Amino acid sequence: MDGLKDRGQVIVIGATNMPDALDPALRRPGRFDREIAISAPDRYGRLEVLQIHTRGMPLASGVSLEGLADITHGFVGADLEALCREAAMTTLRRAMPQLTTEGDHILSDELLSKLEVTMEDFQEALKEVGPSAIREVFTEVPNVRWDDVGGLESVKQTLMESVEWPLKPPDLFKRAGARPPRGIILSGPPGTGKTLLAKAVATECQVNFIAIKGPAILSKWVGESERAVREVFRKAKQASPCIVFFDEIDALTPARGTQEASSVTDRVISQLLAELDGIEELRGVMVLAATNRLDLVDPALLRPGRFDIHIRLPRPDHDARREVFGIHTRGRPLGEDVDLDGLARATESLVGADIEAICQQAALAAIRETILGGKDSPHVPDGSALKLTARHFHEAMERVSRGDG
C-alpha cells in the first residue's frame, strides 16, 4: 500500500465494525487515508430505507412508513430489511389456512390480490426485530401507559415535561436555550411505583429503553465493572434517543468512604460521573434511576448536571388508592357489594404494591371457592359464576396486613 513501488490505479477499500482492533500502522495517511464512519440512519434515512424495502410490497392503506420511521430509533438498514421481511411473513402466516393451489401449483390470482401487509403486521414484526446496536442490552418494554399508574399526577406531569417533551419538539428547547435534564432519580418507600413509572415513561416516549439492574454491573475482575458502564452508555448513544434506567442504584453507587463502599464501587461511581457530566457531552440519552435509600447514594451524583431532578414518591392518598383499586380490578367480575371507596378508606397506610396484592388474593379466593364449590358437580365450573365479593377483599386485606399475601 505504501512501499517503494507505486501501486498505480489501485484503490483499497476496507470495512470493519471494530476499527480500534486494527493495527495503527494501517490507519495513517498514505495507507488508509480516509476513515468514513457510517452511523445508524436518522429518521429521514430510515424512511428512505423502508421505502426501498417495501417497494413492490402490497401495503394496506393504513400503513404509515413515516410512523414506522419515527419509532424505529437505532435501527440500521439490515434491521429495517428484517422488519419488512418479518411483516411480510406475518401476512403469509395469516393467509396460510386459505392457500389453495391449482393443478400446476400456482396460487390463485384471487388469493394473491387479497394479500396485504397491514400496520398490525409491522407492529407484530417489531416484537421480533430489535435494533442491532443495543441487542445485547435491549429489553422489551412492557405496554404500560400513564393510565396504568394510579395517582401521582404531579409526578407524571414532571416526568412528561422532563423526558417526553424534549424528545418530541426539540426545536422549542433549542430556541429557548434550555437544556433537557440529564438524569432523574426516583425515590420513595418500596411499592410506591418507581419501576412502574419508568416503564410508563419508556412506553409513552416510544424510544429505545435499556434497563440495568445495579448489582448486575459489578464484577470481581478489575476493570470489568467500569467497562460495563462505558459499554452501556456507548450503546445508548448509538441508539439515541434512548432511556437508560438504573434500578436499585444505591447498590451500585454507595457513598464513597462509607462502610458499604469498596474499591470497585468507587471506580464505578467515577466512571458514571464521567459519563453523565464529563468532557464528552451526553446527547440524546436520558438517565432514570430508582432507589428507596436515597441516603446511601453518593452525593456527587445528586448535584445539578448529573441527576438534575429528584422526585420523591409519597404514599398514596385516598383518591390515589381509589384509582389504584380501579386499575387492578379493571375487567374483573366484581360483586354488587364491592365498594372501592370503602376499600380505599380501609387501606390508609398501604402502598400500590399492597393494593395489587389485595386484588390478586381476592381473585384467588374467588377462584378457590368456585372450584371447591363445584367439586361435587359432574361439570367443570366455568368462569360465568365467578364473582369477587366484598368478603373476598376483606379477607385479602387481613392476609396482606399479616404479611401472608
Features of this protein?
Rossmann fold; 3 domains; Helicase, Ruva Protein, domain 3; alpha/beta; 43% helix; globular; five-stranded parallel beta sheet
CATH homology group of the largest domain: P-loop containing nucleotide triphosphate hydrolases
Q: Give the SSE string.
A: HHHHHHHEHEHHEHEEHHHH
Structural class, judged by helices and strands?
alpha/beta
The general outline is globular
The main pleated sheet reads as: 5 strands, parallel
* Number of individual domains: 3
Beta-strand residue percentage: 5-15%
How many helical elements?
Answer: 15
Q: How many β-strand runs?
A: 5
What is the average of the pLDDT values?
80
CATH class designation of the largest domain: Alpha Beta
Strand line-up of the largest beta sheet: 2-3-4-1-5
Helical content band = 40-55%
What name does CATH use for the topology of the largest domain?
Answer: Rossmann fold
CATH architecture of the largest domain: 3-Layer(aba) Sandwich
Distance between the termini: 72 Å
- Rg computed from alpha carbons, rounded to a whole number of angstroms: 27 Å
Indicate the low-confidence ranges by residue numbers: none
What does this structure look like?
The chain is of the alpha/beta class and 405 residues long. The chain has 3 domains: 44-134, Helicase, Ruva Protein, domain 3 (Orthogonal Bundle), CATH 1.10.8.60; 146-312, P-loop containing nucleotide triphosphate hydrolases (Rossmann fold, 3-Layer(aba) Sandwich), CATH 3.40.50.300; 318-402, Helicase, Ruva Protein, domain 3 (Orthogonal Bundle), CATH 1.10.8. The protein contains 15 helices and 5 strands. It has helices at residues 43-53, 65-71, 77-95, 109-114, 119-128, 153-167, 170-176, 194-205, 214-217, 224-238, 263-276, 318-328, 340-346, 352-373, 390-402, and strands at 183-187, 208-213, 242-247, 285-291, 309-312. It has a 5-stranded parallel sheet with strand order 2-3-4-1-5. Helix 11 (263-276) links the parallel strand 3 and strand 4 (285-291). Helix 1 (43-53) crosses helix 2 and helix 6 runs parallel beside helix 8. The chain is globular, with a radius of gyration of 27 Å. The protein starts with 42 loop residues before the first helix and ends with a helix. The model has no long low-confidence stretch (mean pLDDT 80).
